[in-house]
Amino acid sequence: MWVDNMVDNLTYSYLYTKRDVYYFSKQVPKDIRSYYKRDRIVICLKTKSQFAASRACKSLIQRLEDYWMSLRLSTLSIPAKHLLKNTINTSNSPNLTVALQTYFKMKGNGKSRVFYRAGQRNINTVISLLGDRPIDEYSTSDASALRDHLIDKGLKIASITRMFSTIKSVINLTIREEGLKCNNAFSRTYMPDLDDSNQRQPIANEDIKTIQNECKKIDVEKRWLIALISDTGMRLSEAAGLSKDDIKVNEAIPYVDIKPHPWRSLKTKSSIRKVPLVGASLWSARRILENGNDTPFAFPIYTNEKTTNSNSASAALNKWLRNRLGEGNVIHGFRHSMRDRLRAVECPSDLIDQIGGWTRGSIGEGYGKGYSLEIKNRWLKKSINLIFYKIS
User: What is the pLDDT of residue 80?
Assistant: First the structure.
């Protein structure tokens, strides 16, 4: 049912109701219809208030008109180009695709496929919307149009901020390398505070105990992976991509040697480390090595000679955890919990960073060899004893 005449003429033709809920409906202009999958945009406004629907409608119309104008301008040649003097030169700056290749060449050494894939994806997003231009021909309004486009697609502000970080880095590097006298149009794009981020929460101590006990009862490969992470704080990809040779259970202090492999890189240089095996993680490590399979991988269900499928592992393990602990509990929560556990026993912050493979907070922390395996082992045992078993 279309709304009555109480709504002003600007919004009247774009609103209708269905089961008393207001909907926005607007035809896509013919000249930009090729950018859309459908000829009409229909959005549920999720309100039964006529006043609220009218305000939302006006806002949507304005944002769409602004975005459509950016699409139209992106396909135009230089306005009034025929009036320019022949002495005016066009840009000598490299195009964005060339800047990306420079970025890969300068910063890609030793980086994983994820680095290249993310960089290519983010730059392709810019090009698909704004075109592959010389880097000094993008404007701040172009950057704002990209931000709005990504928000409209449903991306979280945190994800958009990460994408812009890559775009800024690509352009900044080329500006420095080429000695260009231009600004980076993407460097100061305002990101609204939409409060749309989902903060990952640590898993509660009592829930960790419950999950560890259940892992021991079920005693299969996927549960070994959860148990291994639970008392080491490793990233999922780090643990899933281990080889059996990385697991040292027969040493005076059992530990796991976290290092890059052809099938699994590491996030940062700080990720290369040795972490003592204690509690459920030590149990898991022993079960992995006791398993009689002939593969060199600790978790062959997720790893082979070419790759570690951490996305598949994340989906499966998160589903299992949610079924037992409820929504909001994910495998990465063990990593948050480990940091809290070490804080609770007053472990030094730089030692916490070394155990978890977090990037160090200051230059001085990068000097020397760092903490020994013995000291790491002592604090990890404290985090178990004092928090879980109350043993002084």
Answer: 64
Contact, 22 vs 47, CB < 8 A?
yes
In tens, the pLDDT along 240-295 reads: 999 999 999 999 999 999 999 999 988 888 899 999 999 999 999 999 999 878 89
Q: Do 344 and 247 sit in the same domain of this protein?
A: yes
Paired residues of 257 in beta bridges: 274
188 located within any domain: no
Task: Out of 178, 194, 213, pick the residue that ends a domain.
Answer: 178
Q: What pLDDT does residue 161 have? A: 92
> Phi, psi (5° rounding) for residue 230?
-60, -35
Dump pLDDT digits (tens) for 122-133.
Answer: 999 999 999 999
Q: Using one digit for the tens of pLDDT, what is the confidence trace for 311-354?
A: 899 999 999 999 999 888 999 999 999 999 999 999 999 999 99
Range of the domain at 290: 205-389
- Residue 151's domain is classified under what CATH number? 1.10.150
DSSP state of 385: I
Number of domains in the chain: 3
With a CB cutoff of 8 Å and minimum separation 6, the contacts of 365 are 350, 353
Q: Classify residue 153: in a domain, yes or no.
A: yes
pLDDT at 389: 56
**Interacting residues of 231 by C-beta distance below 8 A, sequence separation 6+:** 212, 277, 278, 279, 280, 281, 282, 338, 380, 384
What is the pLDDT, as a whole number, of residue 269? 84
The pLDDT tens digits for 150-173 are: 988 888 888 899 999 999 999 999
In a domain, 79, yes or no: no
Rg (CA), the chain: 27
How far apart (Å, rounded) are the C-alpha atoms in residues 223 and 288?
11
Comparing C-alpha atoms, which of 389, 279, 301, 287 is closest to residue 345? 389
3-state helix, strand, coil in the chain (%, to 5): 55, 10, 40
Take residue 121 and report the two structure tokens written for it.
């994806």
Q: Which residue has the tokens 């919307």?
A: 129
Query: Tell me, what DSSP letter sits at residue 389?
Result: I
